# Entry
Amino acid sequence: MKLMALPEALKDAEEAIKVDPNFVKAYIRKANVLHSMREYTRALEALQAAETVDTANAHASEIHAQELKTQQALFSQRAGETEEQTLERAMRDPEVAVKL
# Structure
């Protein structure tokens, strides 16, 4: 990630999760990479997975801080959207499109 090779960093984090699904730091790193890629919704999903895996709450403050940072970025990104743009973005979401 420090080299800004974000796709490779994402693959590394996903591979770490495959090797050890309980490795909380891998989910946090995945979220950091996705945040850098401006994939804020996916980053939040990775953080939710990290919360689920972090049963001892050893990384709760780090996860919470990253969630806040990601949510702020997401809100900033969507601040200037028109209703039409919001609807278009929502329709690209498979869960929303299926329900309509």
